[in-house]
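Re: the 382-residue chain
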Amino acid sequence: MSPKSKKEYLTEVKPRYQKATLRKKSRILDEFCETYSCHRKHAIRTLNKPLVPAYKPYNKRGRKPIYSSKNIETVLKRIWLNANLPCSKNLKAIIPLWLGAYQEEFAPLHDSTVKLLLAISASTIDRILKPLRPRYKKRGLATTKPGTLLRKQIPIKTKQWDESMPGFLETDLVAHCGTAIEGQYANTVDTVDIATGWSEQRAVWGKGEAGVIEQIKDIEASLPFTMLGFDSDNGKEFLNHQLMRHFLNRKFPIQFTRSRAYHKDDNAHIEQKNYTHVRQWLGYDRFDNPLIVEALNELYKSEWRLFHNFFIPSVKLVSKQRVGSKIVKKHDKPKTSYQRILESKHVSKHAKEQLKKTFKGLNPFRLRKAMHLKIKKVFALL
C-alpha cells in the first residue's frame, strides 16, 4: 500500500474507531494491523490520536497584508481592462490619471483606499492581477512593396531614438488585409512622434499616393506641435514625388528621410505602435469594405487619439550600454504623451494651455465605451 493510500485509509478509519464500542474496536484493530502490517500497540496509539483538520491555519509572521481588500482588486481590474491590459509598471502610472474619473463613473472611494492605490507598487499589482491575466487576452503579412525610384534622393536615417525635440515623426502603413494581400482593402497610416510618443492614425482605402498624402496632411494639422521631420520605410506609398514635393516645397522644408531596406529595427518606435495602437484593438481581419475607412476615421479622429495620447503611458529608452555579452537598457518612468508635451521646452505655452483645457473635459472610461461601440460598428461592416 502506498503512503498516500495509507493516509486516506487512516483518515477514514480513525473517526470510526474513536466512536466504536470496545468489541468493535477490537475488530477494527485486527483489520488495521493487517492492513498497515504493524504492532497492535502502535495501532492503538495511532488511532487514539486526536483528529487533525485537513487545513491547519497558521499565523504568518510579519505585518498583515494591506492590499487584500476586494475593493482594491475591483478598482485595479476595471482600470486594467479599460486601459487595454497594460503591464503593471504602466498601470501604476495610469492609476493617478484615472482615479478621479473612476469615482465619477462608478462609486466614490474611501480616502484610505485612494491612498493605498496611489502608493501601490508594480510588483503588488502583478500579485493581485496574476489570477486574472489568463482569462483576458488581446485580440501578419508584410505588405510593403519597395519604391525604388527615389531611394537615392531620400536620405537614410537611423538611431532616431535619441531625438529630444517634438516634431520628428516615424510613419508606417498597417494593412488590414487578413491572410491575403490581393485586391483592395483598408490601411491605417500610423505615425508617432519620437520625443513625446504622440501618435495619430488615419484610415485610407488602398495604397494610392493621393489618399495617403491627404491623410498625412490631416495628421500634420492635428499635431499640437510643428512637424520637423518625417521618416518612413521604403514603401512606394511614401517614396514618391508627390509626398516629396509636399515636404520640401515650402518656406520651412520638413526633413524627409527613410529607413534602410529590410531593417525593421530602424523604425522600432512605429513598429511598436503598429501593434499596441492598431493590432491589439482591430486584430488581423480583412477590411475590404470601403465604408470601413469612413468608420475608422470617425474613430481615429475623436476618442481614439484622445484616449491613447492623454491616458495611456509609455516608457522611453534613456540609455543603452554593452556590458560583456549583454546590452543593458535604461528607461525613464512611464508617462503619457500629454505629460511629455507639458514637460517639453520646445512646445508653445498656447499649445500646452489648449491641451490642458482638453484634458480637463475628458473621462477615460467614457472614451473607452465610445471606442468600444465604434469598433463594433466597424466589425459590423465586414
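The longest strand covers residues 168-175.
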